[in-house]
Design brief:
heterodimer; A: alpha+beta; 2 domains; eight-stranded mixed β-sheet; four-stranded antiparallel β-sheet; disordered N terminus; B: alpha/beta; Rossmann fold; five-stranded parallel β-sheet; 5 strands
Chain lengths: 396, 261
């Protein structure tokens, strides 16, 4: 459904439609009738998280959030907007790349083991409220899991089956920088339907773009009409407003050279002292994909199980090989994460690993901000010249 | 499986018995445990006792008396594998609060006849006295981790007991971070996982029951906690609980302690 390049607008040639506020509930019902389990934003535990939606009553109507480095606060809005919040603690990877998954089980049979493979569950999910940056994240994880030489069959199945309802952002959060990463705030492709919410004093409606035949079919079951030029312009305006109010910026100019040449920059040491190596940034990140494999047995030794579990480059065990962990210091772990995310990811997968959603900034308990880290390194370059054989460092 | 079942012994030193109760709390799994091992010595559960040597000794509690400092060597000599269970046995427990004060002063305040009491000036973990094959953290231990260690030993494999932060468990369970979303002070980022992120799951901050995680960075966490309004005294109390004497927690509490009057 998606590909890595989402910057170019895709002209589907379809006339945008209009649904009223009540149409959102009908959309959820229509998806449910088609056999989809609809998951999307809902308020729980002082945050807007993703979970199953029984109806539009579960949506965060009238709620928003305030986000800063290391702080998230749920707030009331004056209006009843459904989607005027920015990305929260959860990301869609919890559905497509589940935190824990059994890969196979085995049973002892005589002197041998019999392997019982797990078949990927074929649950049909409808993801409602996917932001532009999150669409990019889905495309990036697809690149990692489904397009690799050793593809993860389960990921591909889950992604292909997922019905994606994107929602264009009508506001930007304090830690948002999708404009810098060229991944938002407008959904370009990779969706079945894309909604833009317009909330006026007297009217509350949604302009709907159709991204697929599947999307068109669902929409045909609802009461819609063609959106007027005026309504389309009002929708455009909200997205443009969001683009102008990014809480953060990240200058990606020659980012690979910048980070590779500043491997010994003193900033890494300073950030290593602030970093908790708690792994929150990587687990909140919608593109971080690292996992580990656990093998366990039952007490009697009759059954064994291999499970996959989210892991992080911030743990010592993650880089453990014979003889010890490769990255002993927290400094080395932070440097590895940031350099991979922003630089070596490009060589590995053809795009940046960062979508500018700001989760790693908000959900860092001590508020370490990768945009600030890159800025600091850029401001005081401590080059190691990329000349073969030159191992010295000098200030520039 | 081999015809002869491995012999299990459970020993108590200075402790509250909570970790031993975690064994009995295994309930559904208890019968499987009993069929996989010969419970040879477990006074908390049964008066019946078989003499050593034992294949696996589970040791609860810390060393606080001269008598126990001797007794732990006897346990070690009789045990093929010795696994310590819980914060007392692995870090000295809550009773290690004495390590920061003069224990003789407590004796005169608490006991009518202090001369009846024979105690050591410090509460110390088992590993300071004898070689320990495996340390299982927690106050109390998590019963699933306990079963995992027994299962791993029985099946001659490495136990799956991660030493990363509680935060990883929060994220695996998709809990919303209480520190970020509520401004609730939490020791999770410096504490080893194992409890299943129990307290954050109920919107409480982590109390650090499982002790320091690998590469823990308490000074950086303290700086964050101060921003949330925790006082210097609050930091001392936060790091000085069940794992007060665990090195990195001890150092952190001492950093924030005012001189003792």
């Amino acid at each position: 459904m998606s590909s890595i390049d989402m910057c170019a607008p895709e002209n589907t040639g379809r006339q945008p439609k209009l649904i009223e506020r009540a149409g959102v509930g009908r959309l959820i019902a229509a998806l449910q009738q088609q056999g989809y389990r609809v998951v999307g934003p809902t308020v729980r535990d002082e945050a807007i998280i993703y979970d199953e939606l029984a109806s539009d009553a579960d949506l965060p109507a009238g709620w928003t959030d305030d986000q800063q480095a290391g702080a998230y606060r749920l707030k009331r809005r004056r209006d009843q907007a459904l989607f005027r919040y920015t990305c929260g603690p959860h990301s869609w990877k919890k559905y497509l790349h589940p935190p824990q998954a059994t890969l196979w089980r085995a049973e002892r049979e005589g002197g041998l083991f019999r392997i019982l493979p797990e078949t990927p569950r074929a649950e049909r999910l409808a993801l409602l409220g996917v932001r532009a940056c999150e669409l990019r994240a889905l495309a990036i994880q697809e690149q990692v899991f489904a397009m690799a030489a050793h593809a993860d069959a389960g990921y591909g199945v889950r992604l292909r089956q997922a019905f994606v309802v994107a929602v264009n952002c009508g506001q930007a959060g304090g830690t948002c920088f999708c404009v810098s990463m060229n991944s938002g705030p407008r959904a370009r492709k990779g969706f079945d339907l894309a909604l833009t919410e317009v909330v006026h004093a007297k009217r509350h409606y949604f302009v709907v773009e159709i991204g697929s035949e599947r999307g068109a079919a669902i929409l045909a079951a609802l009461e819609t009409r063609d959106a007027t030029a005026e309504e389309i312009a009002a929708a455009e305006k909200t997205v443009n407003d969001a683009a102008r109010h990014m809480g953060r910026t990240l200058d990606t100019t020659e980012i690979q050279a910048l980070l590779y040449r500043n491997h010994e920059h003193p900033r890494w040491e300073q950030t290593g002292e602030r970093c908790l190596s708690c792994a929150n940034c990587t687990l909140a990140c919608p593109t971080c994909f690292c996992s580990t494999i656990d093998d366990t047995t039952d007490l009697a030794g009759q059954r064994a199980e291999r499970t996959r579990r989210w892991d992080s480059c911030f743990t010592a065990d993650f880089s453990y090989i014979h003889g010890g962990s490769v990255r002993q210091s927290v400094k080395a772990r932070y440097r590895q994460w940031l350099t991979h995310k922003l630089a070596s990811w490009i060589e590995q997968f053809g795009s940046s690993g960062c979508v500018g959603c700001g989760r790693c900034i908000t959900w860092c308990p001590v508020g370490i901000d990768l945009t600030e880290e890159v800025r600091a390194i850029r401001a005081t370059k401590y080059y190691r010249e990329p000349v073969h054989g030159d191992t010295g460092t000098r200030s520039v | 499986m081999a015809a002869k079942k491995p012999k299990l012994a459970v020993w108590k030193f200075a402790s509250c018995d909570g970790c031993q109760l975690s064994i009995l709390d295994c309930e559904d799994e208890l019968l499987t445990v009993a069929s996989a091992v010969d419970i040879a010595y477990f006074p908390e559960a049964t008066r019946a006792a078989t003499r050593g040597p034992y294949d696996l000794s589970l040791v609860e509690g810390s060393i606080t008396t001269p008598h126990d400092a001797e007794r732990i060597h006897q346990v070690r000599r009789q045990s093929r594998y010795l696994v310590t269970i819980g914060a007392c046995a692995t870090a000295g427990g809550i009773q290690a609060l004495r390590n920061f004060r003069d224990v003789k002063r407590f004796l005169s305040i608490v006991y009518a006849r202090p001369d009846y009491i024979e105690t050591l000036s410090k509460s110390t973990p088992i590993a300071e006295h004898v070689f320990v094959d495996y340390e299982l953290r927690g106050c109390p231990v998590n019963k699933y981790q306990l079963l995992e260690v027994i299962s791993a030993l029985l099946n001659q494999r490495k136990p799956v007991i991660p030493n990363h932060a509680v935060c990883v468990e929060c994220k695996l369970r998709q809990h919303v971070c209480v520190m970020v979303a509520r401004g609730t002070p939490c020791l999770g980022p410096a504490t080893q996982a194992g409890c299943g992120a129990l307290c954050p799951g109920y919107a409480r901050g982590c109390y650090g029951c499982f002790g320091p995680k690998e590469s823990a960075n308490p000074p950086a966490l303290s700086a964050g906690l101060v921003r949330l309004g925790v006082t210097e005294d609050g930091l001392v109390r936060a790091f000085r609980s069940f794992n007060a004497a665990a090195d990195v927690f001890r150092r952190e509490s001492e950093l924030h302690e005012r001189p003792n009057p």
